[in-house]
Amino acid sequence: MFAAIYNKKKYYKIILILTILLIVVKQTDFFKKLYFTITRSYEARLIKEYEFCGRESIGFLNNIKDQFNIDYKIPIINYADSPNSSWYFANLKNNITNKIIFLNYNKDANYSKDLEAYNVIYKHNDCYYLEKK
User: Fold this and answer.
1) What whole-number distance in Å separates Cα of residue 105 and Cα of residue 126?
2) If DSSP codes are grouped into helix, strand and coil, which group holds residue 54?
3) Per-residue pLDDT for the chain (133 aa), expressed as one digit of tens each?
């Protein structure tokens, strides 16, 4: 008799734990997030989260790094209200360079840095990879 009661309690515990586990998995979109993590590359996930040319503009920085084979830090000025994007180049060498990156630069706004003082190497929307004249 005690064995039957013990097995019944154990059965209810298992059902309760599985129910809670299923609710947590559903609420956190575990399977959807797992699918996107497996099917998308690290760069694609990074660009989706931090945008190509907006907010932190990590997609633009990644494109410049790959296209121009950059292996040194470049000063980055972000004119949007977002965190500094310099962390993307954190693991590169420190070199003195005459290049600079402007992110979210609005030509119509009055900024302390003027595009006229630079040669445009690469541009995408409001993101610029520049070299001092």
Assistant:
1) 5
2) coil
3) 455 556 777 888 888 999 999 999 999 999 999 999 999 998 888 888 888 888 888 899 999 999 999 888 888 888 888 888 888 877 888 877 899 999 988 877 777 777 888 999 999 988 999 999 8
Q: How far apart are CA 53 and CA 89, in angstroms?
A: 16
Tokens of 17: 């734990």
The three-state secondary structure class of 131 is strand
Cα angle vertex 117, ends 116, 119, to 5°?
Answer: 80
| DSSP labels, 5-51 | HHHHHHHHHHHHHHHHHHHHHHHTTHHHHHHHHHHS-HHHHHHHHH-
By C-alpha distance, which of 97, 71, 75 is closest to 85?
A: 75
CA distance 67 to 20: 48
Report the predicted TM-score, pTM, of the whole model to 2 decimal places: 0.72
CA atoms of 108 and 128, how far apart (whole Å): 15
User: Which CA distances in Å does 65 have to 13, 33, 59?
Assistant: 54, 28, 10
